[in-house]
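Input for the complex:
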Amino acid sequence: MSVKPHQWMDDAQNSKPSLSSLLTLVEEDLKAVNELVIKRMQNPVELIPELARHLIASGGKRIRPLLTLASARLCTYEGSHHITLAACVEFIHSATLLHDDVIDESSMRRGVVSAHEIWGNQASVLVGDFLFSRAFQLMVEVGSLDILSILSNASATIAQGEVLQLLTSQNLETTHEKYLQVISSKTAKLFEAAAEIGAVLGKRTDQEREALASFGRNIGIAFQLVDDVLDYGTHKIKFGKNVGDDFKEGKITLPVVWAFEHGSIEEKKFWQRTLGDLNQKEGDLNQAIAYMMKHKALEKTLESAGTYAREAQNQLQIFPLTPVRAALEELTCFVVSQAL
Amino acid sequence: MSVKPHQWMDDAQNSKPSLSSLLTLVEEDLKAVNELVIKRMQNPVELIPELARHLIASGGKRIRPLLTLASARLCTYEGSHHITLAACVEFIHSATLLHDDVIDESSMRRGVVSAHEIWGNQASVLVGDFLFSRAFQLMVEVGSLDILSILSNASATIAQGEVLQLLTSQNLETTHEKYLQVISSKTAKLFEAAAEIGAVLGKRTDQEREALASFGRNIGIAFQLVDDVLDYGTHKIKFGKNVGDDFKEGKITLPVVWAFEHGSIEEKKFWQRTLGDLNQKEGDLNQAIAYMMKHKALEKTLESAGTYAREAQNQLQIFPLTPVRAALEELTCFVVSQAL
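Predicted:
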């Protein structure tokens, strides 16, 4: 095989990787997805499209639906179900975001700000339920039991991962392994499903299907690791979240696991007070970042993200080197480059 | 046709209708459903079965899954998918209950008590999501796109109804018509779907399918109306809820719509203060009940429930008078009799 699997990773430092080649390749499809999303979030109960619009319009790079579109293209699928399913993936993601917004009284006191502040917890939950149901309606329209199975399994795994995350919150005993279990479920599972769908639509072999699923899983883990780094971020502004959110919420992410594990007794006490007991004061976030720097916790996390990104690229090697494969390889670099 | 359609309604006053004939008829099936529910709510993340058990074990008469079991029997279905689908209906119902539990800070101050108090809003939402996803996994296992369509449409309608209910909350402009729209969606839709599934499993005609759907819809509306009456209840204890909950939460139900519409200017001011502004003091609930009595609001609501229950019975007339049809007819009386 003539391609150098890591060429994009090396390039990432020099020529900035971007989403633009992928976006150009699936431009028409993505436009159709956006139109379908807008169309299918309509409802006579106006609060539903209003709240959904706030969330969906405000956001993000549509990486998950892009995976579905690109993997369908990679598998030379020629129908139109990938549009519907990409919209469905975006609806599941949006529902998850809305439900993530829901908070308890205690955390509300800590001043966490998000969409629920405008409409309240109840509206966030119920509109999330609507979007989630809508996702299933779209899947049913496509009519593939195989795909319904992938996405209903993914949904259950995501919920399970979210519950697990709730349980690891403020818990400094959380191990690297447990953390990976959380993000593999709550984040990477939807990436995995989004990519696998393309192979099913293209009626590909089990090997190709598993390769795309694994590609999605690995890029999903890399994405979450980068996201966790950005939360203690330096010069970069994090999409849709503020630097320090994870810290304020007592979320135990890999940089924390690493810094805690390698910290002195005094540092461990700091982490216990700030994250374990959520007893935070002015300057604690900067102190947390300083401790992370001292132990290279952010670098180590990014290194780990790089490893998963490379594994994602490796999974694509069984496909011929088409422009869409190249664009997916660049995507893996793009994800990691967000924190560079 | 020799049967007197309203015989059970008339009997309701004398011989107490009960669930016992229905429970006896589907005893084995219901046992299988309960076992399946317990089995499929298991998860390595222990909080999930723990919270689910709290909810599912604590409760209810399993009326929704009973509808699926009974309608499958009525349609002489002989497979085992009705067990899976009845469990699925119970999971959807449980997810809805968990999400109903989620409250906003403001309502928490009003002292509403429910499951979220033990585990928090976030856990209620996420475990609800898990149960909802589990429901879809069970449906996919059954593999009928027709049934997947019924249940995903029902889920979207339920969420839409819940959002609509949120919007009518504390709003005394809510009309009888709007109220019916709310309960047809949030409550009756799952009853409708639960009953319709039986006809699909039994491969019945569109007419029979529509009759069972309509039976479910009508009994669902009757059920909710009775539930609303019980919330201002007299001697009866309401299952799983306390008398006065709706009042405390500012929910606008039919008895309120009726009493407000027929109330004097002074009474309208009372309803505006207590429900519109949620400015309640000692004795207000009793005063509310007194105003309802004055205008026969509870009687009128029960009368309406009776009308829907009779319509539910009428829908069954196209089926031969087997023991299961008789038991379903008794069920409609049982539902109404809860408030007698």
